[in-house]
Write a structure and sequence with these properties.
By secondary structure, this protein is mainly α. Among the domains are: 2-86, no CATH class; 152-282, no CATH class; 295-354, no CATH class; 368-425, no CATH class; 553-612, no CATH class. It has helices spanning 2-18, 83-86, 113-117, 133-136, 152-162, 168-171, 208-211, 225-234, 279-282, 295-304, 310-313, 368-377, 422-425, 438-447, 453-456, 489-492, 513-523, 569-572, 597-605. The longest helix is centred in the first third of the chain and has 17 residues, at 2-18. 3% of the residues are buried.
Length: 612
């Protein structure tokens, strides 16, 4: 039976869908969501439709009302979701059309008016938070809340106009009450205007209108004279001495008679003798723009100074360069600080102008800038082209005591150089004199014959072999290896030159072994070099370390220690000085094949084992 009921509903819905849909086109909700099979009547108990699936969720009182209250027709999509579509605006559109800004769906009562007011363009603070709404909104009783101005004067213009202590209108006070008054105050008294830009202390604790006489509190001058011109004019000496009109430089607001000016806080602190000088002495033309330069007050002292004469020497007019404010004497100028210390004869100079002709900035530290006359008159200085830097030879204590030490120059004098007259080397003056040996000794170099320096092209730097000792002796020939290397036993006699250079004669000294060792060659008997006619090139068999042992080993060519071959060398080597030629036939005349000669013998018997 249950299945039949649903079948009937389904048939009815199908027939209905074929007919015109009462809920409008596009309505796709299943009929059973709201209707039953018994009849089309809809009750809340039978309806299963969930309103939260729509764009308007039912909350609070909306859950209790009849659907028809909002859905006036069966075309449910035509129902509006705005509050004013269903609810009459009791506020006559003075608060907008969005009821939910203040009300909830539970009831029309407003829980927190102040909190809502904080979201407006005039948040309630202080006394505004506890004031009656009708005090600002006169039509609140009829639920009308017209927009009001948010400036203080919009509500408080009556109070502003009525205030006379001081008169706000007359002084021209700001209409923004919060500039002086707080919203938490219970009365207008006790204004708290921030006057820190010009503190109202001591004598300035007066009625506003006494300063703000122009009817405005804006742009009034903070200069003392703008209020106290009369007091300034009447004060003794102020106008005549052209005192500054900034009263606070000397006075306080507590008492005019107590001056507080401290010159040490200015850009010219008073020290030394300045502390006892009358103000008008310096401030002749008033107090504004008075120069702090020394010569503005002390030009006469500067001009009158004679020891030294400041004007003649061109000394700076900035007195503090040399003097203090305590007294003119003693001066604290230290000439040593300039890099030119006044010692010796310079310390006795009284007048700076003796050196500083008209100024102190261009005086030269060069001796000749002051002593050109002495240089020109000194014997031999100009003729010998002496250097003009006097301190090379002289001190400032005494011209006659020369102090030049050649050993402090880049050419110390040693040996024979210590006795040579200066002009011998400094023929063209003292500046740029060469320190090269050949600049003075080229003639000695060219004339040397033992050995001939030019022929051997020896270095022109004499110091390579010679010292500065007189007579060029002793000489050390450190470049001997360029001509003949001294190695082995020769190195041991390197300092005994005469062993090779007989009689100290160097030209034509032989550089062959035999040239020096002919006696050793001749007296040798084991074997006799002369009899055997050995080569005279000792290096063939000997080393320059020692004669023995010799390096010639006959066995490596032909063993002579066997048989009867222990004979004189020249018995086989018949050609003097050429031991590559030997003769076997002299002794071995019965040789097998004399046609091949000695070479033939050697080819078969070179090991010395056949027919010895």
């Amino acid at each position: 039976m249950f299945k039949l009921s649903y079948l009937i509903i389904l048939v009815l819905c199908t027939l209905t869908s074929l007919a015109q849909m009462p809920h409008g086109e596009g309505f796709e909700i299943d009929c059973t969501t709201c209707h039953t099979s018994e009849d089309w009547k809809v009750t809340k108990e039978s309806m299963t439709f969930d309103h939260t699936t729509t764009r308007f969720k039912l909350t609070g009182q909306h859950q209790q009302i009849n659907c028809k209250s909002c859905h006036q027709s069966l075309k449910f999509k035509e129902a509006k979701s705005e509050c004013f579509n269903c609810h009459t605006d009791m506020h006559n559109n003075t608060l907008g059309s969005e009821c939910s800004r203040c009300h909830t769906t539970n009831n029309w009562m407003i829980q927190n008016t102040n909190k809502l007011h904080q979201l407006t363009r005039f948040p309630l603070t202080g006394n505004h938070a506890v004031a009656d709404c009708a005090a600002c909104h006169p039509s609140a009783s009829s639920l009308r809340f017209e927009p009001l101005g948010i400036e203080c004067i919009d509500c408080h213009h009556t109070t502003y106009n009525a205030t006379n202590n001081p008169s706000h209108l007359q002084v021209g006070y700001s209409t923004n009450c919060t500039d002086c008054h707080g919203t938490k105050s219970t009365s207008w008294d006790g204004a708290t205007f921030e006057h820190s830009f010009f503190p109202l202390t001591d004598g300035h604790r007066i009625a506003c209108i006494e300063c703000h006489k122009a009817g405005s509190s804006q742009k009034i001058s903070s200069e003392c004279v703008s209020c106290h011109q009369v007091q300034y004019n009447n004060a003794k000496g102020h106008v005549a001495s052209n005192f500054p009109t900034d009263c606070k430089l000397c006075h306080t607001s507590a008492n005019w008679l107590q001056t507080s000016f401290d010159h040490n806080t200015s850009n010219f602190p008073l020290t030394g003798a300045h502390t006892s000088v009358a103000c008008a002495t310096c401030h002749v033309n008033g107090y504004v723009g008075t120069s702090t330069e020394c010569n503005s007050c002390h030009q006469k002292n500067y001009t009158a100074a004679q020891i030294p004469s400041h004007t003649a020497a061109g000394i700076s007019v900035d007195c503090k360069t040399c003097h203090t404010t305590t007294a003119w004497q003693p001066s604290n100028f230290k000439h040593a600080a300039t890099g030119f210390e006044l010692t010796g004869g310079h310390s006795t100079i009284v007048q700076c102008s003796s050196c500083h002709l008209g100024n102190t900035t261009s005086a030269s530290a060069a001796c000749v800038s002051c002593h050109q006359v002495q240089f020109n008159n000194a014997k031999g200085h100009v003729a010998s082209n002496f250097p003009t830097d006097c301190k090379f030879c002289h001190t400032s204590a005494n011209w006659l005591q020369t102090s030049f030490d050649h050993n402090n120059s880049n050419f110390p004098l040693t040996g024979a150089h210590t006795t040579v007259a200066c002009a011998t080397c400094h023929a063209n003056g003292y500046v740029g004199t060469s320190t090269e040996c050949n600049s003075c000794h080229v003639a000695d170099y060219n004339s040397a014959t033992n050995p001939n320096h030019k022929t051997l092209a020896l270095p022109v730097t004499c110091g390579t072999c010679h010292t500065t000792n007189l007579g060029w002796q002793p000489a050390t020939f450190g470049i001997h290896s360029n001509y003949y290397p001294l190695t082995g036993a020769h190195a041991a006699i390197a300092s005994n030159c005469v062993l090779c250079h007989k009689g100290g004669t160097y030209p034509n000294t032989p550089n062959t072994c035999y040239g020096c060792h002919a006696a050793d060659y001749t007296k040798t008997t084991n074997p006799s070099h002369s009899a055997a006619q050995f080569p005279t090139d000792c290096a063939t068999c000997h080393k320059n370390t020692a004669w023995v042992p010799s390096t010639f080993n006959h066995t490596q060519y032909f063993p002579i220690a066997s048989g009867n071959h222990q004979v004189s060398c020249n018995q086989c080597h018949t050609t003097p000085n050429n031991y590559a030629i030997f003769n076997c036939i002299i002794c071995h005349s019965n040789a097998h094949n004399q046609n091949q000669g000695s070479i033939g013998c050697y080819n078969c018997h070179k090991n010395g084992q056949a027919g010895d």
